[in-house]
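Record filed here:
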Amino acid sequence: MPKVLIIGAGLSGLSTAYALRNSNFDVEILEARPRLGGRIFTLEKENSQLEMGATWFGPQHTSLIQLIKELNIPFKTQDNGAEAVYDFRPKGNIERFQIPSQGTATYKFNHGTSHLIETLAEASGAKIHFDEVVDSISVDESIKVSTSTSVFEADYLVLSIPTQVISDSIEFKPKLSETFNQLLQNTHTWMSDSIKFSMAYEDAFWKSQQFIGTLMSPHQIIQEMYDHSTIEGDQNALVGFLNSNYSNLNSEERKEKVTRLLESYFPEKERRLKAYADVNWRNEPYTIPKNAKSLVPHQNNGNPQLRDSLFDNRLFFSASETAQQTSGYMDGAVHRGTEVADSLLNLSV
């Protein structure tokens, strides 16, 4: 039985494993983190689901929606209310604007994005090894993947981790071409520039008839914010992105500034915070190398050379950024992960 080894237990890698579940391949996954999901991360804290990574998708994300429906994972429409607050301070004022009726809906998962990951991992049936950081890959008659503790051998290898991490941290024997290695380095990694935050309260004090939490600001610590409460009322939460100028602060310092800013918007309201969390994805070593250069968002995403297989169709790259459609998004991860599985199945015919 031919062996397929997948590096990365995020959405792309798990999509490949799932698509191969009924094949004659023996599939194993190596994951550097102690958890599933990669850039998908729903943090359970104080009976609240705080989204630290990928959250939203739309009807145009057809590969993702097909997978969700196949796995019977419930999702719902994101409600942004009728009004948004724009905070232009210190160069302007706080203003309210009408939110235009959305032509295209935005969706999110009923039970957190990690519900997709956990369901997919179980359905794939693949054996997953956690805390396995790949140091080197040697390609000869077989493929040998070395970590700090073990050596894994396979017939085929799928690298589903970000391309910048591949270039920075994995030694190849024989070496990749300099041109291809430069392409890996110069391919932007989705989420790598983001500080995602979420917070849960006892009550949804921010809600009114028109405004339910949608906020934008070019200068304050909160750059984007959206309501993340449940219709049932068992979770009152906010989620969004923080200004990258505050990346030098630690999470507690950012929490203090975020809560103070919310107090300035709602000075008369009682606020009982249950949980706060944020993730500065720039500091996640398995998402982006520490000294990676800044790139234009989506730079080289979808470049066709990233979909070339190497070493006589034995090595494939499948991170979302390599996808031909919706590269950098969850849909791109599913699309490319499934596409690589199809390529492997065609090789075995």
About this structure: The first strand starts at residue 3 and ends at 7. The two ends are 13 Å apart (CA to CA). The chain is about 20% helix and 30% strand. The mean pLDDT is 96.
